[in-house]
Specification:
Chain lengths: 195, 298
C-alpha cells in the first residue's frame, strides 16, 4: 500500500491509474464540493454546472459557513457526507464532465466499480465525522455557485495537505468495500452457525 | 405566565442553547476512552489510519474550539422531569425548541431541518415536531435533567426494524442485528454505538433503540439477561471485520447497548439504531430554582 500526493484538477490520466485500492493519498490544489441537490439539478433537471469539472476532484459535502459578502463565504466547519446516496451520478459525472475523483464517506456500492474502471475514475474514502481536521485543510472557499441550494451549493475550495484519504475503489476494478462485504458475509454464515 | 415560570423556561432555553453547541464540540470522556482503546486494538492498515485521523480530529476540535463533525444533526433531547418541577412539559418543550433555534442562529450552525415532502428548510434546526424529545417522568423529585444528543443523518439512515416472530427467539434477534451492521458497512461512520430496542411494539422498539444509543458507552442494562446479550452482541459484531469506516478491520463497533420492554406473546420486535463514532451528548441538571449544572458525562 503506497503513499501518494496528487494535485487536482489533473490533466494526466496516469495520476489516477497509478492509485491502487488501499493506497493512502494526500490531495493538493482545488476541489469541488457537491451534494444530493446539486447533482439532482445537473442530471435530473438538466442544468449545466457553471464550473469546469474536467479532471476534477469532487467532495460530497454541505459545509457550515458564514456569509461575509456578496457570494463570499468563510468556513466554519466543513466535513463529508455519505456517498452511497449519490452513486447513480458516478457514470454521467465521468462520461459527460470528465470528473476523475469522487471523495466521500462510507463508500460506493458495487454498481460504481465498472463505470470507474471504464472511465478511469477513483473513489477516495475520507474519515466521516472528522470535520474539525478537514476544515483546517481547506484554505479558502474560492467560489460558490447556486447559492439558493444552500448548503448544497456547488463549492470550489483551495486545499492544502487534504487527507489522509484511502483509495476505496480504484480505476482497475478493485473495491475495498466489495472485498470487506464478501468476507463479512462469509463470516456471518460462520457466526450464525455458532448461535 | 408567572415570573417563576418565565425564569425557568429561560433556564431551559439557556441550557438547550448551551448543550447543543457544547455537545457538538466537546465529546464525553467515556467516548474518548473507547476511541483510544479502539486505536490500540486495531491492526488493519486502513483501520489504523481512520482511528489515528479520528484521534487527531478530536484534538483539533478541542484546540480550535470547532465542531467535531459538520453534521449538526437533528437535535434530540432526553428529558427527565421530576413530578414537582414547577414548569409544565409544554413549556419545557418551548424552552428546548427556542434554545435549539438560538444556538443555531448565534453560533451559527448549519440548519438541517426541512419539510419532509417539499424539502424546504423549516428554520434554525426547528420545525414541525422538531426538535425531538424523549420524556421520562420521575416521582418524588423537583428537578429536571436535560440531555442533548444531536443525531447525524449518516448513522440515522442506518436504522432497521424487523418484526421477528416468537419462534425466531433470541437467535433471530442476534442474526438481525448482525445482518444490519454488516449491511450498513461504512455508511454510519463506524466504529460507533449499536443501539438495539427489543420488545414493546414496532414503534416502541425503535424508540428504545434510540434511548440505548444515548447511554454512556459501556453501561449495561440493569436486567442481567439483557446485559448478557449486550456483551455477546458486542463480541459478535466485532468479529464481522467491517472495521473503521467500513474499510476492514478489528473494530467495527465501540459498544452494543440494548433497551427492552415487555411485549405481546406473539410479538418479537427488534430495532437497530446506529450512533456514529462522534457519539455526541451533553447534559444539564436544572433545579426547581432554575440553577443549571452542566455535566458532560451523564
Amino acid at each position: 500500500m503506497a503513499n501518494h500526493t496528487v494535485t487536482f484538477p489533473i490533466t494526466d490520466p496516469e495520476e489516477i491509474l497509478k492509485l491502487r485500492a488501499g493506497d493512502e493519498v494526500t490531495v493538493q490544489g482545488h476541489i469541488i464540493g457537491i451534494r444530493d441537490r446539486t447533482q439532482i439539478r445537473i442530471f435530473d433537471q438538466g442544468v449545466e454546472p457553471p464550473m469546469d469539472l474536467s479532471g476534477a476532484f469532487l467532495l460530497h459535502t454541505a459545509p457550515n459557513v458564514r456569509k461575509v459578502g456578496e457570494g463570499k463565504y468563510e468556513k466554519i466547519c466543513i466535513g463529508t457526507t455519505t456517498s452511497a446516496r449519490m452513486v447513480r451520478f458516478t457514470e454521467p459525472l465521468g462520461r459527460q464532465y470528465g470528473v476523475c475523483a469522487i471523495c466521500g464517506k462510507g463508500g460506493f456500492p458495487d454498481e460504481a466499480i465498472e463505470p470507474m474502471h471504464e472511465l478511469g475514475m477513483v473513489y477516495f474514502a475520507i474519515v466521516g465525522g472528522a470535520a474539525a481536521l478537514e476544515t483546517t485543510q481547506i484554505e479558502e472557499i474560492e467560489e460558490v455557485a447556486w447559492e439558493e441550494l444552500m448548503p448544497e451549493c456547488l463549492w470550489k475550495f483551495r486545499v492544502k495537505d487534504f487527507g489522509p484519504l484511502t483509495v476505496g475503489i480504484d480505476a482497475h476494478g478493485n473495491s475495498l468495500y466489495r472485498d470487506v462485504q464478501t468476507r463479512a458475509k462469509a463470516k456471518l454464515e460462520e457466526l450464525f452457525a455458532r448461535l | 405566565m408567572s415570573t417563576v415560570v418565565t425564569d425557568l423556561q429561560h433556564a431551559v432555553e439557556d441550557a438547550a442553547a448551551h448543550l447543543y453547541v457544547w455537545s457538538l464540540k466537546d465529546i464525553p470522556q467515556d467516548l474518548r476512552d473507547a476511541l483510544a482503546a479502539a486505536r490500540l486494538r486495531e491492526t488493519s492498515v486502513p483501520g489504523k489510519r481512520v482511528l489515528e485521523t479520528i484521534h487527531k480530529n478530536v484534538n483539533i476540535a478541542d484546540s480550535e474550539n470547532n465542531l467535531v463533525c459538520q453534521d449538526t444533526g437533528i437535535a434530540v433531547y432526553h428529558v427527565r422531569v421530576g413530578e414537582h418541577f414547577p414548569l409544565h412539559p409544554a413549556r419545557i418543550y418551548e424552552g428546548l425548541r427556542d434554545g435549539t433555534a438560538r444556538a443555531t442562529i448565534e453560533h451559527p450552525l448549519r440548519s438541517n431541518a426541512v419539510h419532509t415532502l417539499t424539502r424546504e428548510n423549516t428554520g434554525p434546526n426547528i420545525g414541525y415536531r422538531l426538535p425531538i424529545v424523549h420524556w421520562e417522568f420521575i416521582q418524588d423529585w423537583d428537578g429536571l435533567d436535560v440531555k442533548c444528543v444531536p443525531k447525524g443523518s449518516g448513522s440515522e439512515n442506518m436504522s432497521f426494524l424487523k418484526m421477528c416472530v416468537p419462534a425466531d427467539g433470541v437467535k433471530g434477534i442476534k442474526q438481525f442485528v448482525l445482518e444490519s451492521i454488516v449491511g450498513a458497512g461504512g455508511k454510519p461512520c463506524p466504529p460507533g454505538i449499536v443501539g438495539v430496542g427489543i420488545g414493546g411494539s414496532a414503534d416502541y422498539a425503535m424508540h428504545l433503540a434510540k434511548e440505548a444509543i444515548m447511554r454512556p458507552i459501556g453501561t449495561r442494562n440493569s436486567d442481567p439477561l439483557v446485559a448478557q446479550l449486550e456483551d455477546e452482541l458486542f463480541e459478535l459484531l466485532n468479529e464481522t471485520g467491517i472495521g473503521p469506516m467500513g474499510l476492514g478491520g478489528d473494530v467495527t463497533v465501540l459498544q452494543c447497548h440494548i433497551e427492552h420492554a415487555d411485549t405481546h406473546m406473539t410479538l418479537n420486535p427488534v430495532a437497530v439504531n446506529y450512533q456514529c463514532w462522534a457519539a455526541r451528548r451533553a447534559s444539564a441538571h436544572i433545579s426547581a430554582e432554575g440553577d443549571i449544572d452542566y455535566d458532560r458525562e451523564a
